[in-house]
Amino acid sequence: MVVGDILELATRYRDEGADELVFYDITASPDGRSVDRSWVSRVARILDIPFCVAGGIRSVEDAEEVLGEGAEKVSINSPALADPDLISRLNARFGAQCVVVGIDSQTVEGAYHVYQFTGDPSRTRNTARLTLDWVREVQERGAGEIVLNCMASDGVRKGYDIEQLRAVRNLCRVPLIASGGAGAPEHFEAVFADARVDGALAASVFHTGAIAIPDLKQYLRGRAIEIRP
Amino acid sequence: MTNGVAIIDSGGANIASLELAMERLGVPAELTTDPEKLRAASHVILPGVGAAADCMGRLQKAGLVETIRGLKQPVLGICVGMQLLFDSSEEGDVQCLGLLPGRVRRLPDRDNLPVPHMGWNQLEFNGKTSLLNDIRPGDYVYFVHSYAAPVSELTLATTQYGDPFAAVVRRGNVYGAQFHPERSARIGAQLLRNFVQL
């Protein structure tokens, strides 16, 4: 996506009442390349809501650049798996509130497994780490928020993986954001009511206009889910 | 309205956001650690992110503690910047600026509520202040914190997270907001606008 499109989308979501935006460069990690981050300050200029940058953050210096441009948080996924101490270093430098750990997870033979390099299908691999163990470890290392992307649900629009999110919620003492599977307003209601997540992330249903954010919020408020109007 | 807002360069990660928020309001604001500029500014904002002890350490290192204590114009502490206005903080057991009485404490670990408290939450009003003009009880603002100041007679707005804590405080020219107005959409912009009009 070119910068002009990013800014247009950011403006649209701001005006529609999104509570937070996450910008993913999902190709940044597998390539081992660094990202052109000139867009971050341009987004920061427009947005009056918090936003998080994910992808290509491999060092304290990378994070410093992104936060210095005005992002609230950085989200790390593959680099945290390669170098778990990065979580601790980011926590020590910026505080837990800046450090989001993204986890891509799916069921393998009855257990949840963490996947790495999910931005590139040819390199995506099962790390053999168990998701629940990793959720514990990233908290001990100082993550301030966890985004759990349930890969089997992702892109299918049949609802969030409530069962898996519940299992993670039970041992997650920091804010937990659900990702993967949103296709209808009822899915958002279910994930808040049944998995007690702190936030629900979605991309395609908003990008395509299948769900309008103001309508979704009105729906959720009508179902007694506490959410900013 | 203003002959210049000074933002104290306390080294936190949210300073860029705050500068951009002032820019969106069309209010000139200068990031500085110069005591002369702070004294000359019409309004002073003390932002803060990270640990209270680190932030206090940076203010001490910059030789700003007495300067801030002596400011007569409106001063607004944001997030950890608000916490620093109090006598002390449990976080790192640090003595703070002592402009407001009381001790900042860790949010209670109960009701399965995640800490940090990170996200949008509602304001309830305790008192009147022009800092809250055109802001209503029940309005949502954006919080990111693990410590908070207790509710007292200086509290103008509270927020509930396990227990109620002080979301907006005031004594004389000294104001504090525990949330991040620079990231609280329309409500946050209104608070900053109200502040520079004090």
Automatic annotation (TrEMBL), chain B:
Subunit comment for this entry? Heterodimer of HisH and HisF.
Q: Which UniProt keywords apply?
A: Amino-acid biosynthesis, Cytoplasm, Glutamine amidotransferase, Glycosyltransferase, Histidine biosynthesis, Hydrolase, Lyase, Transferase
PANTHER family from the entry? IMIDAZOLE GLYCEROL PHOSPHATE SYNTHASE SUBUNIT HISH
What residues make up the catalytic site?
A: C79, H180, E182
EC number, as in UniProt: 4.3.2.10, 3.5.1.2
Give the Glutamine amidotransferase domain ranges. Answer: 7-196
Recorded GO CC terms: cytoplasm
Q: Which domain of life is it from?
A: Bacteria
Location in the cell reads: Cytoplasm
Reactions performed catalytically: L-glutamine + H2O = L-glutamate + NH4(+); 5-[(5-phospho-1-deoxy-D-ribulos-1-ylimino)methylamino]-1-(5-phospho-beta-D-ribosyl)imidazole-4-carboxamide + L-glutamine = D-erythro-1-(imidazol-4-yl)glycerol 3-phosphate + 5-amino-1-(5-phospho-beta-D-ribosyl)imidazole-4-carboxamide + L-glutamate + H(+)
Q: Which GO terms describe its molecular function?
A: glutaminase activity; imidazoleglycerol-phosphate synthase activity; lyase activity
Q: In which pathway does it act?
A: Amino-acid biosynthesis; L-histidine biosynthesis; L-histidine from 5-phospho-alpha-D-ribose 1-diphosphate: step 5/9
| InterPro entries for the chain | Class_I_gatase-like, GATASE, Imidazole-glycPsynth_HisH
Main role?
Answer: IGPS catalyzes the conversion of PRFAR and glutamine to IGP, AICAR and glutamate. The HisH subunit catalyzes the hydrolysis of glutamine to glutamate and ammonia as part of the synthesis of IGP and AICAR. The resulting ammonia molecule is channeled to the active site of HisF.
Primary subcellular site in the record, as a coarse category: cytoplasm
Which named protein is this?
Answer: Imidazole glycerol phosphate synthase subunit HisH
Q: Which Pfam families match?
A: GATase
Protein's GO biological process: L-histidine biosynthetic process
